[in-house]
Amino acid sequence: MSDWKNPVAGGEPRSAQISAEVPAGEGHSYKNSGSPSTTSRPSDSKRSPLVPQVKDTILLLGWITGIVLIAALCWFFTGSARNNLFIKSINRVLEETGDPHRLGEPVNPGFSGSFGTGAWYTIKANEKFPDGTKAYVFTFFGEGVFFPCMAIVNTAGKAEEFIPLSSHGKRMIRQISPGIIKIFMQRLEGDKS
């Protein structure tokens, strides 16, 4: 640092002295301001644009995977809360319509077969419904419209009732042919057994 000269005091800055001392050789490039820039490598100009694209793709896939993983964990850990809310809402609908059925606990997943996308629940036992009566809550498609329904299956595995859970469903059930509902109930009985 002994040969450093202060540019304010009239001396030449050290960076200018360095650029004057070091000859510009192959692979070196310097700016006009006298400060050395990074050396350019011959391989930099030939680098493929594929590498940044692959990095960006990997980052994007990582973000998507993380979001899906977080959503799956939330879905898994909130299962019992979702079941409780679902049971309460169905029981409220049944109570408002004057239906004596009340859903109990969900039936273990090993019980459900390949039929439909609904869920099996127990019916709370009382004098009219013996213990072991099950309900299948599902969405029915009729006349181009989806509506929620519930089918009651007794302890012998026979479907007893087909209950629409909305006012729109009640109107739609009147328009659907009894043959279609009978076929549906037979498939449900086959799945239960």
How many helical stretches? 6
Stretches with pLDDT under 50, minimum 5 residues: none
What's the end-to-end separation, in Å?
A: 93 Å
SSE string, helix = H, strand = E?
HHHHEEEEEHH
Number of domains: 2
The average pLDDT is: 76
Strand count: 5
> How are the strands of the largest sheet arranged?
1-2-3-4-5
Quickly give the structural class: alpha+beta
Q: What is the molecular shape?
A: elongated
Helical content stands at 40-55%
> Radius of gyration, Cα only, in angstroms?
37 Å
What percentage of the residues does DSSP assign to strands (E)? 15-25%
Sheet bearing the most strands, described? 5 strands, antiparallel
Keywords summarizing the entry:
single chain, 193 residues, alpha+beta, 2 domains, 5-stranded antiparallel sheet, elongated
Report on this structure:
By secondary structure, this protein is an alpha+beta fold. It folds into 2 domains: 41 residues, no CATH class; 114 residues, no CATH class. It is built from 6 helices and 5 strands; from the N terminus they run ααααβββββαα. A hairpin with a 5-residue loop joins β4 and β5. 11% of the residues are buried.
